[in-house]
Automatic annotation (TrEMBL):
Entries under InterPro entries matching the protein: IolE, IolE/MocC, IolE/XylAMocC-like, Xyl_isomerase-like_sf, Xyl_isomerase-like_TIM-brl
Gene3D superfamilies xref list: Divalent-metal-dependent TIM barrel enzymes
Record pathway: Polyol metabolism; myo-inositol degradation into acetyl-CoA; acetyl-CoA from myo-inositol: step 2/7
GO molecular function, one term: manganese ion binding
Name of the protein: Inosose dehydratase
SUPFAM superfamilies: Xylose isomerase-like
Length: 297
């Protein structure tokens, strides 16, 4: 795949937000099945060892590398020094594992884990909250730069940065040398945005990619029933590339034709009791490999 590195997220095996989903799946099963499916790397989940040397040993045995890990920032609701302390620990852990990017998502005001209708109660930041977010992210970007790393902002359903307009504001008000973007196909599609538009407009800012698909019938149901985010996940709104309605052909073509350099992470938070994690990881790998063949590589 040239400069694209293909990885897999552990959230299909064990869900960090809903621990009962996949509670029977072990860390070793997760990474072993990722390797068996042919992936090059992984993001980090809640069952992974917290000791960097130990984790690296487990991953090295399976020829897997660390792509990144999620960091919940609370820049709009907590003192910056508190966020900074936690971020530095997270940064140092990822640096020890050889990761180059740090996934950051603002969880201040988030309804991601709340039992509230996903669209009706979506948070909207005030002018002051926007200022705290922008200033805070730029400081985190500077801290990442101390280790020659970058922060990649994760737009996400149920948070203050979800829509096209919010992503544009975030990108326009931050310094490109300090704040990059994580491009997530599934969150854009479920929000009603145009994934290709964001990809083309901010390609130069994108340093990390999540390939996630959406089941249209489930998406329609959760909108109609005013479901919360976690309920949507349990019902299976997300799935792997090639199993939903998103057309990944033009997305992959654009990434390849414009020499995207970085990780593409297959991510589909769904119940592994209903959708076997290894089966779907393999399905996604085969689908993406076929995209490459059709693309002429």
């Amino acid at each position: 795949m040239g400069s694209i590195q293909l990885g897999c997220a552990p959230i299909a095996w064990t869900n960090d937000d809903i621990p009962e989903l996949g509670k029977e799946n072990t860390f070793e099963q997760c990474i072993s099945e990722m390797a068996l499916a042919g992936y090059e790397g992984t993001e980090i989940g809640n069952k992974y060892p917290e000791n960097a040397d130990m984790l690296k040993e487990y991953l090295d045995l399976r020829n897997l590398r660390t792509a990144s890990a999620w960091f919940s920032s609370f820049l709009t609701t907590k003192p910056f020094e508190e966020v900074k302390t936690e971020f530095i620990k997270h940064r140092n852990f990822l640096h020890a594992l050889g990761a180059k990017v740090i996934v950051v998502s603002e969880q201040g005001q988030s309804i991601q884990k709340e039992d509230l209708p996903l669209f009706e109660y979506k948070p909207v930041f005030s002018i002051e909250e926007w200022k705290r977010l922008i200033d805070g992210l730029q400081h985190l970007g500077e801290l990442a730069g101390e280790k020659n790393m970058s922060i990649v902002y994760h737009h996400h359903m149920g948070t203050g940065i979800q829509t096209t307009e919010e992503i544009i504001q975030l990108m326009e008000e931050t310094d490109p040398s300090k704040v990059s973007l994580l491009y997530d196909t599934g969150h854009l599609a479920l929000s009603g945005e145009d994934p290709l538009y964001i990809l083309k407009r901010y390609f130069k800012r994108i340093k990390h990619v999540h390939f996630k698909d959406v089941r249209r019938d489930v998406a329609n149901e959760i909108i109609k029933k005013n479901d919360c985010f976690l309920s949507a996940v349990k019902k299976g709104v997300f799935t792997v590339p090639g199993d939903g309605y998103i057309d990944f052909h033009p997305i992959m073509d654009y990434l390849r034709e414009h020499d995207y350099y970085g990780w593409v992470i297959v991510e589909a938070e769904q119940d592994p009791a209903k959708y076997n994690a290894y089966e779907y990881a393999l399905k996604a790998k085969n689908y993406i490999d076929n995209l490459e063949v059709k693309g002429g590589l």
